[in-house]
Structure formats: C-alpha cells, structure tokens
Amino acid sequence: MRLARDGALAIVTLSNPPRLNAMTRGMWLALRAVFESLNADARLRCVIVRGDGGNFCAGGDISEYPGFRYDTAQLTQFHEAEVWGALQAMLDCPVPVVAQIEGACMGAGVEIASCCDIRIAGTSCRFGAPIAKLGFPMAPREAALVQRAVGDVLARDMLFAAGVHDAQRLYHAGFLLRVLPDADVAAAAVEHAGKIATLAPRAARANKATFTALARGAGIDALVADAYAYADTLEHREGIGAFLEKRTPRF
Questions:
Q1: Tens digit of pLDDT for each residue in 42-92?
Q2: With contact defined as beta carbons under 8 Å apart, do 122 and 181 qualify?
Q3: How wide is the angle at C-alpha 142 spanned by C-alphas 10 and 70, nearest 5°?
Q4: Does the keyword section mention Lyase (predicted)?
C-alpha cells in the first residue's frame, strides 16, 4: 500500500504486483489505516484509488487462505474486522473518491471500487467475484455493498455463476462513469480528481455527507435541519461573487 500527496489530492495505490494486487491481510489493515488518516485531514479534497502495474485488484490473496479460513472465529475476524474495517474507512471518507480501474478488478477489487464515488475504467478491464469456484459465499456486508453498486442482476450473476463481465457491461449498469482506452485511464482519473479538487471543497464534503447519510437510510427530513448552515460562508459568497464578476472562483 502506498500513499502519495499532491496538495489537496491523495493517491492510494494497492500494491502486490506479483499477484495482480490481490489483497493480503496486511494490505487490508494498511488500507484502513491510510483512509483513517486521510479522513482526519481537513486539507484533503479528493482521493484516487488505483492499482500498481496496470491492474486494479485481482481479489484476495488466496495463498493466505489455508492459514485462517477454516476456523469460524478467525474467518469472522477477517471479514468483520479486517476487510469491513477497511471498506468502512473508505465509505467514511468525507471527500470524493475516484477509482482508476485497470486490468483485473475481481472480488476484493470490486468491493474496493464499490466504495468509490466515481469509477473510470479501461476497455480491457474485467469485473467479477468468482468465489463460487473457491467454495465460499461473499460476506453479508460485502455482498450488500456490491449489490448496491453494480446492481442486483450483475451481483447475483457474479456470485451464483462466477460471472465475469467487461467494462462496457459495467458502464451500462451504471457502475462506471467512463470507459476509455487503457492507456488513457490514468490521465483521465487524475484530470477528473483534479477538477474536483479545484471546486468548492465545503460543498463537496456536504454533498458527500448527504449521499453517505442517504445510503445509510437517513430520511430527508433529518438532513434538512442543518442543510443551509453554509449560507454565510466565504466559499458560498466567493462562488456566487465570482460568477457575477465573470471570473474563476478561488476556492
């Protein structure tokens, strides 16, 4: 796991190249730690999540599985604390998260991508969760996350039939914002994240908080009470003032 910073933009790189960035237990713990650190950074405006060496993430590192998966207590600890702890830290990120998806995006990769707000992928990407071939189901919290993100039909096919789908299918399902030639994905992700980082940061955080609350079942009425506290903020005044003065706002 690597973290790089470029001002208000953070880049998180999943790194296990010999195994196409398959997630080890240590990588799950590192992913959680990285996002918990980023989530406390008031300067942060956007995060890119990507994989090392031309692949996003090929799933879990199966070479570790015999060491813990056959014991109920250890398996529970793995999914409920280690995996979900990392995914929850991503879901808790208060700023937009952009997924730069290249190559393999399988199993754990689909879960990690499902935690992102914007997903941009290459034409050669493949998506799935073929764990039926490994003899186990997806953990309930993880299945609910994937089902919400990719849609019910694709989620069921991925888990029941070990279905693997191309980027165009995921684009039409609403999972991907853009599908580009593989060579263009990295630049497009940086450009998109950079655009987000130049726009109103407080507004982005407020929109992210609204989407997060709605995903967790909050009613609209509960959100309205504090929805307009930004009225007298400098950011609000700058955005409207810049438009009226026909200049670029300075956020």
A1: 999 999 999 999 999 999 999 999 999 999 999 999 999 999 999 999 999
A2: yes
A3: 115
A4: yes
Full domain range(s) for residue 151: 2-197
Alpha-carbon distance values, 189 to 73, 146, 172, 184 (Å): 39, 22, 19, 9
According to DSSP, the β-strands at 164-166 and 126-128 are antiparallel
Cross-strand partners of 165? 127
The verdict on residue 249 lying in a domain is no
Give the count of domains, the chain: 2
Tell me the C-alpha distance between 191 and 175, whole Å. 19
Q: How far apart are CA 204 and CA 239, in angstroms?
A: 13
Output DSSP code: residue 6. Answer: E
In which residue are the tokens 């450009």 written?
Answer: 191
Q: In sequence order, what are the beta bridge partners of 105?
A: 57, 127
Residues 193 and 205 in one domain: no
Q: Which two tokens stand for residue 195?
A: 């655009």
